[in-house]
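Inputs:
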Amino acid sequence: MDDASAQLDLAHQLLADGQANRALEILRRTRPSDDLAYWSCRAWCHRLLGDWPAAEDAARRGLELAPDYPGLLVVYADAARERDDLAAAERALLAALRLVPDDPVVLARYAVVLASAGNTSKARRVLDRAESTSPADRAVIRARALVAFVDGDDRRSEADARRLVADDPQDDSAHFVLAVALCERRRYDGAAARFRSAAALDPGDADYVEAARELRYLRHPLLVPLRPIQRFGLAGSWFALVMGFLAAQLTGLWPVALVIAAVWLVVCVYSWIVPPALRAWLRRQGRL
Amino acid sequence: MALKIGSTSGLAEPFLVGPAGDGMGGTMTTDDPIPGDDDDDLFRPSLEARADEVHEGAPRPWSVKPQLFVAFFGGVLALGAIAWQNSGRLGMAPSRRRLIVVTCGVCFVAVVVIGAVLFGMGTDSDATRQTRLGSRLVAVGAYLVCERLQRPWERAYRLRRGDNAFESLWKPGIAAVVVLGVVQALLLASLRLVA
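Outputs:
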């Protein structure tokens, strides 16, 4: 085995161990070649490090050598999806599915691409197919949670995300998906805890850090008067206000009606002024 | 809150295939039909048209929740205009966009009917107050339906771009409330003359 092959095998091993950075260092020392394994490894390194343009470029170079390589088609699809070119992502994933039609990971990715385009009915059918062969596959469960999120079925999204976390508490992305589901159900304390867990497991992920900061902002003491709106939602809060005001008016309790109207006006003005000012102040402090 | 859940945090399973000739090469080619795809469209491309609709540089959509204020203060016409515009920005399916139009149309007819009945029954001041109240309630009801229709596409947009990618509804919302709110008020006021 020559030195280049040995380096490539080492890079593969490091990548399999989750050390994409070190694998990339080794690949950079190796001269790029017309070796499919080189471009496949490089594409996955960039993909796992979130360097999407480099991942797409490496995937494209590899696909020029072997257009029918599912692993590279998946990386190409992920990168296309990241730059919001869902049609290109779909084409790549359909090409991969022609080669591996029942692979749960590819099917799950295809379902997420469909959900990202709002086509959740087709996404659910794709996941049904995936579940028929691999019901407990984590990629499929995660895709279910994301499809449920898009559908607005936050209970289902939370339930699927909890399965993921229970199955592997060290999976940072599972904590993140659960945190998002909890946010949608307005359980902000639980969501904050999950964002912190995700950030603790992967401190380098900017999305986790930013989400944890946003939740700290939402739970700031200055926003306490707005907690009812956070808890019951905008429509729910307005509905309660209008019903309370009407009830007071219809029963002749004008002072009560006036108090309700005055409190709500103050809360509205507060919600228009304080949150943006607080956000700007926290940004200047570097805390947001 | 900036939640972009579709990137590296979304599907991070290592999908590793070994060096060429290992793992998942398979024997099929990308031109072969997908097994089990005999009788439905599961594996036919469905996103080609959408890629042209929502392109780089297109105006960003508005978040759906603030449309409640447009409905409450501006009425059904204002809500309908904003929701229709937003449905296009979100890339919603044409059938769903039509449902928004139908919903707001039906609700506007309901407002007119309520006004006609009330002006025909009560005194001017009572009828005006009750018509205003009734039109607000109907508008909020229309909002709840339009919100439900827009929700999957709004969530899909959030999945792709995060929460902070929406455009502010302040200016267009106020414009819709002022302009179309006045139009609706004038239309309802004309009922008084007819009734």
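Remarks. Chain A touches chain B through 85 residues (CB under 8 Å). Chain A has a mean pLDDT of 88.
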